Amino acid sequence: TKAKVEHAGGVITKDIFTFPGGRRFHFTDPDGNVIVSDGTTQWIYRPSDNPNQVFRAPIGPETGGQDFYRELLQNPGAKYEVTCASVEEVDGHPTYRLCLRPKTPARDRPDTVWIDSASHVVRRIHFTEENESERTITLSDVEFDVTPPDGWFTFTPPPGAVVIDFGFNRLGDKWVGDVDFDEVKEVAGMI
Prior knowledge:
With 191 residues, this protein is mostly beta strands. It contains 4 helices and 12 strands; from the N terminus they run H-E-E-E-E-H-H-E-E-E-E-E-E-E-E-H. It has helices at residues 3-7, 68-73, 76-79, 181-184, and strands at residues 23-28, 31-37, 41-45, 53-58, 80-90, 93-102, 110-116, 122-128, 134-138, 162-165, 168-171, 174-177. The strands form 3 sheets. It has a 5-stranded mixed sheet with strand order 1-2-3-4-10, with no helix packed on it. A 5-stranded antiparallel sheet has the order 5-6-7-8-9. The longest helix is centred in the middle third of the chain and has 6 residues, at 68-73. It is globular. The two termini are 22 Å apart. Residues 1-6 and 10-19 have low confidence and may be disordered.
C-alpha cells in the first residue's frame, strides 16, 4: 500500500468486517492487494508490488505490529493532539477531517482521519511514513452486524509465494516463526 493507492483511488471493494477483531480489506487499485487480520495476526499480500511475496506479522502494541483501528480508537487523546481541519465529503458522506499530531514520536502513525459526521464511522485514513511515503486508505461499503462467511479472517498464501514471517517464538533451544508451517508448506515457495 504505497502512495499509488491514493493516486489510483485506493478504494476497498469488499465490506470490512469486525467479528470479533477480524478485518479483511480488498483493494481495487492496485487490484488484488489484500490485508487480512484475525485480531492477533495480520497477512499482507500485495501482488502489485511482488506477486510472489506475502508478509505475516503479529499485530498490537506489544509486538510492534500495526492495527490502525486499535491505534485510532483506544485512548486516542493520550496519543494525539487533534484539531478539526475542515468538513469534507468522502464517498458521498459528510465527514470531519481531523488532523492528528502524535504526542510522542512513532512510526507509521496516521496524520489525518476523516470521521463520518452522522454515524461517526472512520471513512478515510492518511499516513505519512518515516521514509516520507504517503498512503491513504478509504473505507467504503462499511456494514455493521453482518455475519462473515466461515474462513473470512484466514489467509492462504498463493502457490509458490515466499512467506516472510515477522513473528517469532522460542521452541526449546531454537527460534521459530509463528506461521503454521504444516498449513502453508504445501503452497509456499519458501518460509
